[in-house]
User: Fold this.
Amino acid sequence: MKKAVVYLLLTLVTVLAGCASTRPVPVLDLAADTVPVAAEFVTVREQADHSHDHAGHGRDESKEVRWHMFRSTNRIDIDNVTVNTGETWLRDGKLLVMRQLFHEDRKGIEYLADDFAVLGMQPSWQRQAMLIDPAVLQALQETGSSWQDGNPLRHYRGDVDGQRFEVMWRVDVNLPYSLVRERDGQRETTRLLAVHPLAQSPWKYENGDGYELIDYADLGDRERDPFVLKIQSQLPGGDMHHH
Amino acid sequence: MKINAARKSLTTAIAAAMLTGTSLPQAAEAPASAEEWYAQGQEDLLVQRKAKTNNRKAKNVILFVGDGMGVSTVTAARILEGQMNAGDGEINRLSFEKFQHLAHSVTASANQQTSDSAPTATAMVAGIKTNDGAISVDQTINRTEPDAAVTASKSVKTILEIAEEKGMSTGVVSTARITHATPAVNYAHISNRDWEADSNLPAGATVKDIARQLVEFPFGDGLEVALGGGRSYFMPNTMSDPENTSLKGRRKDGRDLTAEWVSNYPQSAFVYDQAGFDAVDTENTQHLLGLFERSHMRYEADRATDVAGEPSLTEMTEKAIEVLNNNKKGFYLMVEAGRIDHAHHAGNAYRALTDTIELSNAVRKAMEMTNPKDTLIIVTADHSHVFTIAGYPSRGNPILGKAAINGTPLTDSLGLPYTTVSYANGPGWTGGTQRKEFDGATEGTVAATYTGSALRPDLTNVDTTVPAYMQEATVPMGSETHAGEDVAIYAQGPRAQLFKGTREQHYIFHVMANALGFDK
Assistant:
């Protein structure tokens, strides 16, 4: 009996998939309100080629990071499950606030508008919500479209500001199904593993709202704080401007 | 050496500009010949010889503190201001640099060679040296003393508290949070500068948090003016912020201290934006609380982009003096340019210097509004920063630019251009082939991929004068640090002549108290 049910379901899925493949893929609409979702991604960084290896600082090994995104209208939480850290973006009108969360210490660093300014950062809500600058996506050449497991994808490829992109875009949730960036022999690949409506998220997350938050501007006054000393290598630095 | 009429005219103009700080900064020109330089020196000598000292008792004292404003910061800011006015930056002077009296201030605290703002600010307003992190408590207290009675027994009275007891009006103004160390030392006593809201206190602590100490201030009739940032430290975590309505306060005790301020004092006001600030009736407002940001106020360079708008340091100084002037017994006011320090910590010279220039503007406004015969104005810093002016650039070379002689960039031993200003440590470390970068996979650092053989970034095509440029640093640190050399004390008004030589920082309190007649 069970086998018969499974057979019937598989047949149904196959038929539906066949129908789906003939359906037109919706057009890209980056101006649409972002759908509240919980999504799981994996990001891999690796050496694209070995021509840039130098003695002492070549890197062959790839590193895989699994992480979750919880996206609502005015809040994005990123849970870096591999290393127990997180990131929260809050939107209040034009104001953007970012919190770097360290779950083990139950503490976070809060970045405000002026902190972004001194660090030369120009954060964009859309870039955080979609994982790519919409202007960059629109600058790429569309190379095709498809359905994957019943989900509509549009395919893009091209170079922007010296970086090579290859993107498969889930137009229904405005998130990358696959996002490959390549520069200076380094390749970073982000793949969407699963996505759910936010209210039906299968993943639990500590959002850090009860954590002690330290202003980025106050880090200089915490010169003896063991937590600050521990995380200082994870703070933004001069390489942001010069490289 | 003869001085012809033209040269005399020029040098007299320069000397006049140097004598008084109240005139707006104008494009100054440097002497162009040996004769003119000599004449300028002679004129300056004449001015100083004619200068009179003022040994009267002071009616008012204004203490300006540039947080982290070391001598190199003052020099670079003076040059930047001059260059922004299309003049000779090197001969330009900030308003307070025209004061007649000057001393060095030794900033080491009771337990630090290089200090943080808490003990240095305590030294200035309480007349003693104490330990790191201490807010107007003595050096025998534990760094994290939670007990209110113990804290009270270790507390030291401040110049503001004495002024209140004497019936004077008092105020604190800062571009940082009003609960931050430098303003807090005036009205609070606590062992840990970070305990700004009750949510920062350890469990079981009986000492009051800093925000609460401001609103429950027990001396005189309470502070007349408190203007700055830090609104979230006064509001409960269930209450929406009035400017950023999706964000909440930080207090866990459910208290709205902004409402308590208004209910505690007659003829009082709480304002949080530019419109509310502009509407304050200073003749009829006796207690003014203005908290213009959830945390620190905006850098002067970014203030115009603020959603609700907020006043400049100059505007806050003006408003504070207007309120405080209602009391015929005089006033004590501390004004802090709190974000010079933050910009330096972030390795951002542009904002450190533009905030220093704004401090100069605020001092100029205070000079315009007060009489030097009865008002002692002191301008100083709590500590310095590891900020340097390097190389051999030509006079007139952009201070935020690359070191160059007559426009031709100077190069380091690698053949690469470098900036005139930089830091000895901080986030601006670029590290060349040894550079590490954060690796999210391990939460550690890994050697960064580095293309080419350069040991430093090539700045040839980089515009280092843009506001967002992060100057290079020698030692990699998440945040640039304070520096331990002396800072300057600039003073004018009654007893200002007592500032001379190299003095310990807590001497500032003793001069203020002496000038106000508190030590009789």
Notes: Residues 1-19 of chain B have pLDDT under 50 and may be disordered. Chain B touches chain A through 68 residues (CB under 8 Å).
